[in-house]
């Protein structure tokens, strides 16, 4: 392929990013001028000199002659190889692509204008880094890699494979690489694979686009796979349109996968979009995909300020979990300040259940913190059974959700749906604090339960200062619903929540809190429940104990059902005077009407509680306007 054609590819990638209205981070193409020193070597594709700027050598010569600490400048052109990798790095050197090739003067680098392309020609890995070294690769286009034929680390890292080394990979375009093409072993890290480094790995400012971990077998990390790399930093990359596996029964992390002992790994500021874990399963429930965008399989990972957009766990032929992000068997993981939107766990019309977490999925992972995220427009399943359109917890004890907006998610569009916004299964010690669950849908079909939230089987939870509003279910519980058995009860404590207008569905789907199974035990204190058929409805065998609840506009009754409901000191028949965003207005009967809870010192917005003579009912503490009269200062 000619250099002009490669330039066209690079230009098209850049133009495509601009057309996505700023969703994708473009590399800073500011002209870089670096002064050479005695440790600098210079490369052109046909170079045969002494590796000086005036007489460049070829790339293999420069790598063989370089000493630890040297810098190699590689001129714009296409570089291929004849061995198992285009290049092998075994020394602590810095490789800079994008050099303009000028024989004299200051060293000018601009990878966008002077693309330096390393091409594996679809037959070999592009870069292999090994040994106890720290190597920097900056400003290259890395393409055409295939690690299926490599005798070392076969099937690992089609574009870049680093083993027992510490790479710094920056400002590169890594596209069109595949880790494994066969059917006998798993493919890992289509674009980048890093395992067991001896220091802190840094992957930053790269565009990692359209790579594949495996074509026909299990795959992990279509774009990036970090394995047993403590403290790795994956920062400010575009990870787009990568695939863990095209056709297989297991796929993990279409965009990014982190596994092994990778404590304190940081994923921050990345755009992770349009990635897929499995494109085509085998048509059975045995095909399972996890993490269309990101899959975490390591303790103590931080996922912060990323955009996780339009990823899919599985397109067809199996079940999917974590359309955007999947966390499995990984304690103490933090998800903070991310935008998780338009992701799908299971996309196509396959009658296979167990599709979970359109936005975020957590399984068998304790102490996960999901904080200050916007989780919006995600779907657990399009046409079949789905649970947790926004978030699904399964066996995740001591999970904390704080300050999130969970909005416009679907558990299922056309099948059984459980928990349009949130679904917890067999998870104990859950804390839901100061979240907004808005406009979520359990299912558009008649089988939706828990438009806002769904708690099932052996779950213990606390909800404090949440707004649960305008959610939709057609079968049970527009706001909240449950699933239990005698051996797997559900226990919940609800304090200072505003549960409003979850009456968008039909029948029992218009009940705010529906204790629709026996063995549910709830205690509710200082909650505001507004505009439903019933506020709290309990079936036989369930128990609800209410203190200081403000009920209004619940057309069939504030409470109902044959279950045991104790309703102490309710306020009824008085409009709560809510704003359009469910905050209290002046004169609301909720003001100062709650029980005193000295341990609770803030409301959903972080405002101090109490601000008047007592605690206000609901998620919001009404803020009094305090006028301060200052003494008049006269000027002479």
Brief account:
This protein is mostly beta strands.
Describe this structure in words.
This protein has a domain at 384-587. The chain is mainly β. The strands form seven sheets. The chain has an 18-stranded parallel beta sheet, covered by helices on one side. The chain has a 17-stranded parallel beta sheet that branches. Strands 5-9-12-17-22-27-32-37-42-47-52-57-60 form a 13-stranded parallel beta sheet. The chain is elongated, with a radius of gyration of 28 Å. The chain is built from two helices and 68 strands.
Shape: elongated
Q: How much β-strand is present in the residues?
A: 35-45%
What class would the helix/strand composition place it in? mainly beta
- State the major sheet: 18 strands, parallel
Specify the oligomeric state.
single chain
- N-to-C CA distance: 83 Å
Number of E-type strands? 68
Radius of gyration in whole Å, from Cα?
28 Å
Q: Level of helix content?
A: under 10%
Count of helical regions: 2
Q: Low-confidence stretches at least 5 residues in length (pLDDT < 50)?
A: 1-37, 626-636
**Mean model confidence by pLDDT:** 93
